[in-house]
Amino acid sequence: RKKSVTEMSQQMLAVTIPPNVVGGQTIQVQAPSGQIVQIKVPDQSRSGQVIHVQVPAAGTASTPPEAPTASQPGMRRSSRVPPPRAAAPSTENAVAVPSAAAARRKSSVPAQLGNSQQSAADAFQREKQEREEAQKADRIKKADRIEDMEAFKAELRRLACIKDDRPSSAKVRQHPQLRPLFESMEASMPSTKKLRSIEGFLATQKSLTLSLAQAKAILEALPNEMRHQQALEIMLPRMDADATSWAKDKLEQMDPKNSMSTTDP
C-alpha cells in the first residue's frame, strides 16, 4: 500500500517538557526541518516529562499541501480514510521553546526576586548608615569627655607645680639662728621650761625679728596648747607685721574678752 502524503510529510519527535510548564499550556518546538511548531502539552503531563508529537518531516514545505476534495476532477470521495501510519520516534530530543505567556511568567519571577533583593539591600544600607552615624556620635561624645578629662588633669598638674614659698617647720628648725632654741626646747620636757627657753632665747637675740613661719614653728614645738597663749604673748613684741596680725587673731580666738592693743615694735 502506498503511503499517503500526510504520512510522508509528518515525523514523530520526542519532546521534553521545559520547566515551569504544566498541562494545557502551549509550547513551541523546532522541527528537524527548522520549522517552529506550536504544540499543546497534554493535561496530565508535567515539567521534565518526555512526550512524542508529530511534526513536519525534514525536506518538506513549510505549509502542507492541500488535501484533495470531491469537487476536483479525477478524485473520488473515499468512504473510509485509513489511519496514518505512525513514524518511528526520532532519537533526537527537540529543543522546546516555551510560549510567550509562559516566557512572561517565567521572566516575572526573577523580576520579583530582584525587587525584593533590592529592597533588602536598601534596608541594609539604611541600617548600616544609621549605625555608623550613632557610632560617630558616640566617638564625638567620648572625645569630648576625654578632652575635658585631659584639661582637668592638666589643671591638676599645673596646680601641683605651684610651689609653696613658705618654709616648712623642718626648714625653720634647721635655721642657724633658731637651731639653739629648738634644741633647748626638745631637751626641756615640762612646758614651763620650754616657755623659759623661748623667753631667754629672745632676750639674747635682740636683733631677731620672728617671721610668721618661725612663730608657727616655735608654737608647734610646744605640745601643750594651754601654754600657747603665754608663748604668743612672749613672742609678740619680736614678730613682724604678718606674724603680729596672725598672733593677735589667735589670741582673740583663745580669749575673746582679752582684746590686745599691743603696737608693733
Strand content: 5-15%
- Describe the largest sheet: 3 strands, mixed
| β-strand number | 6
What pattern of helices and strands is seen along the backbone? Answer: HEEEEEEHHHHHHH
Question: What coarse outline follows from CA principal-axis ratios?
Answer: rod-shaped
- Rg, rounded, reads 62 Å
Provide the low-confidence segments as ranges: 62-79, 259-265
Distance between the termini: 163 Å
The strand order across the widest sheet is 4-1-5
Structural class: mainly alpha
Helicity range:
40-55%
Mean pLDDT: 75
Note the total helix count: 8
Model description:
The protein has 265 residues and is mainly alpha-helical. Helix 4 packs antiparallel against helix 5 (191-204) and helix 5 runs parallel beside helix 7. The chain starts with a helix and ends in an 11-residue tail after the last helix. It is built from 8 helices and 6 strands, in the order αββββββααααααα.
